[in-house]
Structures are given as C-alpha cells and as structure tokens.
C-alpha cells in the first residue's frame, strides 16, 4: 500500500508566487479526474521526503 499523505511527499513544495504548497506532478486528464473524484486512494507519484536518505546512502 502506498502512503498518500501529501505533507510527507517530495513533490509537495511551497510555491512563493501563490504563497501556498502545491504538487509539482503534472497530471494528465484521466489522472486528474480520478484524483478529484476520489476513486483513487493512493497517489502513484508519492515519494517520501526523506532528508537523510542521501546521508544514509553515503555511510
């Protein structure tokens, strides 16, 4: 099961122009429909925002 908490996703970034957080993934028409209609429970583009992943990899 894929976690779909946007707050913990690397694609969820702060947009200074709009002064809010937005998703950087460009969804096509079908994906946007599934997202807005709520038929999909998890995001296929979710990647955990793991700040220390690079450090663990270097060790």
**Average pLDDT for all residues:** 80
How much strand content do the residues show? 5-15%
Number of helices: 2
Largest sheet geometry: 2 strands, antiparallel
State the secondary-structure class.
alpha+beta
Tell me the number of strands.
2
- Spatial separation of the terminal alpha carbons: 29 Å
Q: Radius of gyration over alpha carbons?
A: 14 Å
Outline the low-pLDDT stretches. Answer: none
Q: Kindly report the oligomeric state of this protein.
A: single chain
Please estimate the helix content. Answer: 25-40%
Overall shape:
extended
Q: What strand order characterises the main sheet?
A: 1-2
Protein architecture, described:
By secondary structure, the chain is of the alpha+beta class. The protein has 2 helices and 2 strands, in the order ββαα. β1 (12-15) and β2 form a beta hairpin.
List keywords for this structure.
single chain; 59 residues; alpha+beta; two-stranded antiparallel sheet; 2 helices; 25% helix; extended
What's the arrangement of secondary structure elements?
Blueprint: E1 12-15, E2 20-23, H1 29-37, H2 53-58
Antiparallel strand pairs: 1-2
What's the short story on this structure?
The protein is an alpha+beta fold and 59 residues long. It has two helices and two strands. The model has no long low-confidence stretch (mean pLDDT 80).
